[in-house]
């Protein structure tokens, strides 16, 4: 039986990958995590809640297809899930679940796990151990793009106070293969280039042709690194556009006939394997992503004639559309 993979990279915590990349993110001020992600016909429900203060968590994962529960996992862990993706990490056309986490006890050291479905159970792969090298004190960031996992963290010199590293950063590039997470490159910036996507490219011409129906609301912020879209996550009253950091500049276009919201991100690119993500809630039918010259366009298609009332705000890892 061909298994459905769910990937995990461990440094000290857990990182569930849910993406094509649908991705979810936990609040840095909270002590719990709960998200539902959908990819390639599968639904992944992931939650983490305190068992004995924030330092000990109960993590639960359920995988469903067509309303049927395929497998569940429940375990006590000493890390807090922060970001999750659903994505095909090993190229077998079935999504894995990947979750990035941090240790509450060990100075925020990072961990990443890949979970896959085999029979009626979930199995987990963890990061190789003791690969951080000298000067490592946590504060890991994980990025999933295509079949690669990039882990980056600051490097401390002897005598550096916590929170003030002076020796640059280090990156380790991993891949998930045959139930294992393997190191494929260290100490170099990973090449996470994403393939060109074009499903929403025609929206650029539509926006120009429907000026009388378009509301333009530019939002200007301080410049930052080039935004990389890693996933789309839908919750009870919101949709998150997950990225490699805060999206500091974007433009909103409300379009009619059919009703849709276009979000243009200057200099953005996508690391998602899928160009269309089904939603089916919050009055939204689907989300489409496409490259345009100089910007990336994310389009939310409404299920009715009028786009639902909403707000768009920047988060620490992307944008949130709240309904």
Structural write-up:
The chain is mainly β. The protein folds into 2 domains: 23-186, Beta Barrel (Lipocalin); 202-322, Immunoglobulin-like, CATH 2.60.40. The protein is 2% helix and 51% strand. It is built from 1 helix and 24 strands. The chain has a 6-stranded antiparallel β-sheet, covered by helices on one side. A hairpin with a 2-residue loop joins strand 10 (141-145) and strand 11. The chain starts with 22 loop residues before the first strand and ends with a strand. Residues 1-20, 187-199 and 208-224 have low confidence and may be disordered.
What's the helical proportion of residues?
A: under 10%
What distance lies between the first and last C-alpha atoms, to the nearest angstrom? 41 Å
Number of strands: 24
**What Rg do the Cα atoms give?**
19 Å
The fourth-level CATH homologous superfamily of the largest domain is Periplasmic lysozyme inhibitor of I-type lysozyme
Q: What is the number of domains?
A: 2
User: Strand content of the residues, in percent?
Assistant: over 45%
SSE class = mainly beta
Mean pLDDT: 78
Net shape: globular
Q: Write the H/E string, N to C.
A: EEEEEEEEEEEEEHEEEEEEEEEEE
Regarding quaternary structure, how should these chains be classified?
A: single chain
User: pLDDT under 50 segments (min length 5)?
Assistant: 1-20, 187-199, 208-224
**Second-tier CATH architecture of the largest domain:** Beta Barrel
Major beta sheet, strand line-up: 14-17-18-22-21-20
Main sheet: strands, sense, barrel: 6 strands, antiparallel
The CATH class label of the largest domain is Mainly Beta
**In the CATH scheme, what's the topology name of the largest domain?**
Lipocalin
> Treating each run of at least 4 consecutive H or I residues as one helix, how many helices?
1
